[in-house]
Specification:
Structural class: alpha+beta
Distance between the termini: 37 Å
Number of strands: 7
Number of domains: 1
Helix content: 10-25%
Oligomer: single chain
Strand order of the largest sheet: 2-3-6
Number of helices: 2
Strand content: 15-25%
Length: about 120
Amino acid sequence: MSTNASDKNPHSIRCADCMQCRQVKEQRSSGRYILLACCAAGHWVKAGKHYTVDIHRIHTKWVRGCPDYLSSSDDDDDREGFLASLPESLPPERIVYEPDGAVADFTEVDQWDDAR
């Protein structure tokens, strides 16, 4: 499968390659957190609310022509290589971290969505 945006839609871009794509922590009262991606320029909006994407799914995020898009790659070949290798460099699923940055023991982690 090609990672070229023009293969999917000539006016779509891959957010994972954009300088506006930021990694943020979503923390619970226990101190545990997960990593999410968000658009620093505020373009990820659904039903009037800004939203985030799980960091392990950022390689699937596409946006139609964005006025603030700025590639983090030096050229098209570098961009294509980055996007092609991105899925392998990301965790395969959501990971919950302890306050000190260590990976939480999955058997001790409550359902993340229920722990708010």
